[in-house]
Known about the structure:
Strand 1 (2-7), helix 1 (13-22) and strand 2 form a beta-alpha-beta unit. Helix 1 (13-22) packs across helix 9 (279-294) and helix 3 packs across helix 5 (143-154).
Amino acid sequence: xxxxxxxxxxxxxxxxxxxxxxxxxxxxxxxxxxxxxxxxxxxxxxxxxxxxxxxxxxxxxxxxxxxxxxxxxxxxxxxxxxxxxxxxxxxxxxxxxxxxxxxxxxxxxxxxxxxxxxxxxxxxxxxxxxxxxxxxxxxxxxxxxxxxxxxxxxxxxxxxxxxxxxxxxxxxxxxxxxxxxxxxxxxxxxxxxxxxxxxxxxxxxxxxxxxxxxxxxxxxxxxxxxxxxxxxxxxxxxxxxxxxxxxxxxxxxxxxxxxxxxxxxxxxxxxxxxxxxxxxxxxxxxxxxxxxxxxxxxxxxxxxxxxxx
Length: 309
Ligand code: NDP
């Protein structure tokens, strides 16, 4: 029984160390590995090479190394009977709350503008809005979206949320399903995307969606780059409908040096750091699932292959 780490872009050394510190006797391998593939029963994956699981006949669980599992589910050769799991972690959740709060407040107070003027030694006081003057719309009310909604509400914002079904969330008005989307968008001065990437959410941040937001709205995408139609964002910024955007995720990461987002004056870019999985913080839940698998018990944080999240 072995665990194998499949990842193309992550530095896997902290993961190896965290697993070995927690369980020194465990056989943990890193793909590719020349030993007997049939011994591997548990995969830990982040942007694995497509089709890599094909040669591992006994993989029973594929654990995403992050909260999203889209990178696992998009593999057309995903083993049919393997359970896919994801990370649900207090640190990850908390970090997403503080990060989106920071972006929303930075937008209200115009901090990016002051940085630009500071470079030219220009004293440039501007009027600002307070959280109470602003409604935030959070797309996706799962583990992260619900927490972000509460964090913003507790800091004085009026918060609406959108999900597939209505759900009770303290002080947050929720909108459900495609038919409620126009109403939800019409009230969102700041739109935060925290949807999982699925066939029905891909490209959802497009021209038609942006057109339904109030004039001067601000867009924050911390979910996946494929949610956003890049050209549509630039068009809606350039025609003045949108005030600006903060983007943490991109169709291609790292964002290519020639991408127009880099030089757009009203787009702020961060390199997919909204909330980062800390190996030491999550190996406990990964090993708990590994143990549950040996005992044939139901695993935690299972992703629905049918829903795609
Ligand atoms: P969850 O699976 O817990 O929640 C997903 C939410 O999206 C649910 O509320 C669900 O609705 C809603 N949803 C899904 N499909 C639709 C749809 N078609 N229409 C309306 N609502 C929909 O996900 P998390 O909150 O844990 O994570 C969200 C995403 O954040 C991840 O998938 C990942 O891509 C991204 N992420 C980004 C990070 C970063 O650093 N930038 C870090 C971690 C995650 P319902 O409740 O009705 O099922």
